C-alpha cells in the first residue's frame, strides 16, 4: 500500500460510515477504533484501522503526524451559511436582546435589507477579503467543506458578484465551497408588495446567468409568511430544478407555513431551520429522504425554541447540524457551541451530533459519497483533536478542541 501521509498514535478514531445520510437510530452508529492509524495517499484515505493491522507500506516514506493519543474525527461540513456579505448589523442584535422580534425588524425595513445595501455597495475585492477571513476562522474550527449562499444582492449584478467571490475563494484557500443561489432571500425594495414579480425576475433574468456561469450547485428560497409563500416558493424551486440545480429551502422558521412539506414534494436535498414544522410535514420529509438541517446557533441568538431534533431522529429523519453564519440572526460560525447546543437543548446524543456535523451535513450538499466519514476511498478531510475522545466535542462546552486539520491529505492547520 502506498501512503503520502500517516496519522499515527490515534487514541480513538470515531466516524460514521457510509456514502449516504444516516437516518433515525442509525445516526448513533459510529465506528470506534482504539490505537488507530490513518494512511492517506495523495488526497484520499487509503486505509484506516488498528495500528496493529496496518498493511505494509510501499514507495517513499510518508509524512507523519503524531496524534499524541488524541481522537481523530472527520472534518466538519458546515452545510448552511451566508458567509459572503458586506457590513454588520450589531445594532439589531441588541434590539432583539431588548425584545424586538426579528420579523418586526424585517418589516420596518431593517434586517436583510440593511445587509443588501451594504453588500451592493461593496466591491468584489472587499467581499473577498472579509469572506476569506471568515473562512480562515472556520478552518481553525475544523470546517473543511462549507456551503455559501448568495441572497444579499437581490439584483442581478450583486448576486453574481457574491457567487463569483465564492468561486474565487474556492480556488484560493483550503476549505471546499459549495455555492447556492438564494436570490429569493427577501423582497427587494424594487419589488415591494410584489413577491411574485420578483420570483419572475429571479427565474427569467438571474437563474440563466447563474447556470451559464456555473456559479451555483443549489438554489434556495426563504419560504416564509410575508416573504415568499408556498406557491411562489414552489414556482422558483421547480424552475431551478428544471435547469439542473439541486434545491433547498429555508422552511418553517418563524411560522408553520408548510415549507417542510414543500421540500418533500419538490425533492429538495435539505430543508433548513424547521423550528415550527408540523409532524406530518416532517414525516413526509423522512419518506422523501430530505435531510433536516437544524441551526441551533440561530435559535440561540434569536432566543427562539430549538428545532425538535430529538423527535426528528426518533421518527426516522436524517438530521444535519450547521452554523447559519450570517450578519443578522446568527453572527457565529462556532461549531463547538453548535455541538453543545445540539446535545444540551435539542436532545441529540453526541454520536448523533457527530454524524450530523459530518456525514449527514455532507449528504445535505450531495457530497456524502466522497466525504463526511473516515473510510478508504473518501477525501482525507480529518481533524486531530486536543482531547482523548470525540465526546469532548460537546462536553468541553463551546471550546475549540481541534488541534490539527488535514484537508485533502495536506496539513493545513495546526494550533500551537
**What is the number of independent domains?**
2
Report the uncertain regions.
Answer: none
Please give the radius of gyration in angstroms.
21 Å
CATH class assignment of the largest domain:
Alpha Beta
* Shape category: globular
Alpha-carbon distance between the two ends:
32 Å
Instruction: Specify the biggest β-sheet.
Output: 9 strands, parallel
Helix content: 25-40%
> What is the typical, i.e. mean, pLDDT?
96
Structural class: alpha/beta
How many extended strands? 17
Write the topology of this structure:
Elements: E1 5-15, E2 31-41, E3 44-50, E4 63-66, E5 71-74, E6 76-78, H1 90-97, H2 102-107, H3 112-120, H4 124-140, E7 143-149, H5 156-172, E8 176-181, H6 195-213, E9 218-219, E10 222-223, H7 230-242, E11 246-251, H8 259-266, E12 270-273, H9 279-288, E13 291-294, H10 296-302, H11 309-314, E14 319-321, H12 335-344, H13 350-357, H14 359-363, E15 382-385, H15 392-395, E16 402-407, E17 410-414
Parallel strand pairs: 1-4, 1-5, 6-7, 7-8, 8-9, 9-11, 10-11, 11-12, 12-13, 13-14
Antiparallel strand pairs: 1-2, 2-3, 5-15, 15-16, 16-17
Amino acid at each position: 500500500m502506498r501512503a503520502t501521509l500517516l496519522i499515527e498514535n490515534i487514541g480513538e478514531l470515531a466516524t460514521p460510515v457510509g456514502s449516504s445520510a444516516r437516518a433515525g437510530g442509525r445516526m448513533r452508529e459510529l465506528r470506534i477504533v482504539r490505537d488507530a492509524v490513518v494512511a492517506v495517499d495523495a488526497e484520499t484515505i487509503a486505509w484506516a484501522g488498528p495500528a496493529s493491522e496496518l498493511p505494509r507500506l510501499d514507495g517513499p516514506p510518508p509524512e507523519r503526524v503524531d496524534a499524541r493519543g488524541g481522537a481523530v474525527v472527520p472534518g466538519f461540513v458546515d452545510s448552511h451559511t451566508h458567509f459572503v456579505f458586506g457590513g454588520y448589523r450589531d445594532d439589531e442584535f441588541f434590539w432583539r436582546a431588548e425584545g424586538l422580534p426579528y420579523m418586526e425588524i424585517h418589516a420596518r425595513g431593517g434586517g436583510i435589507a440593511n445587509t443588501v445595501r451594504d453588500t451592493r455597495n461593496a466591491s468584489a475585492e472587499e467581499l473577498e477579503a472579509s469572506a476569506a477571513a471568515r473562512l480562515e476562522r472556520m478552518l481553525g474550527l475544523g470546517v473543511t467543506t462549507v456551503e455559501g449562499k448568495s441572497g444579499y444582492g437581490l439584483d442581478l449584478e450583486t448576486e453574481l458578484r457574491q457567487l463569483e467571490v465564492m468561486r474565487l475563494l474556492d480556488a484560493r484557500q483550503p476549505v471546499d465551497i459549495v455555492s447556492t443561489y438564494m436570490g429569493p432571500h427577501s423582497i427587494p425594495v424594487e419589488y415591494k408588495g410584489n413577491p411574485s414579480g420578483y420570483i419572475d425576475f429571479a427565474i427569467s433574468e438571474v437563474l440563466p446567468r447563474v447556470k451559464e456561469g456555473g456559479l451555483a450547485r443549489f438554489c434556495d428560497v426563504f419560504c416564509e409568511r410575508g416573504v415568499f409563500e408556498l406557491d411562489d416558493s414552489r414556482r422558483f424551486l421547480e424552475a431551478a430544478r428544471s435547469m439542473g440545480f439541486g434545491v433547498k429551502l429555508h422552511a418553517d422558521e418563524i411560522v408553520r407555513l408548510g415549507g417542510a412539506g414543500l421540500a418533500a414534494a419538490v425533492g429538495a436535498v435539505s430543508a433548513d431551520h424547521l423550528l415550527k414544522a408540523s409532524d406530518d410535514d416532517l414525516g413526509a420529509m423522512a419518506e422523501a429522504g430530505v435531510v433536516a438541517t437544524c441551526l441551533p446557533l440561530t435559535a440561540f441568538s434569536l432566543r427562539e425554541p430549538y428545532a425538535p431534533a430529538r423527535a426528528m431522529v426518533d421518527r426516522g429523519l436524517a438530521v444535519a447540524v450547521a452554523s447559519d453564519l450570517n450578519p443578522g440572526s446568527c453572527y457565529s460560525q462556532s461549531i463547538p457551541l453548535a455541538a453543545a447546543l445540539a446535545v444540551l437543548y435539542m436532545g441529540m446524543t453526541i454520536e448523533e451530533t457527530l454524524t450530523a456535523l459530518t456525514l449527514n451535513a455532507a449528504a445535505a450538499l450531495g457530497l456524502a459519497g466522497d466525504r463526511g466519514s473516515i473510510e478508504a476511498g473518501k477525501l482525507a478531510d480529518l481533524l486531530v483533536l486536543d482531547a482523548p475522545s470525540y465526546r469532548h466535542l460537546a462536553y468541553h462546552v463551546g471550546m475549540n478542541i481541534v488541534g490539527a486539520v488535514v484537508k485533502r491529505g495536506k496539513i493545513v492547520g495546526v494550533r500551537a
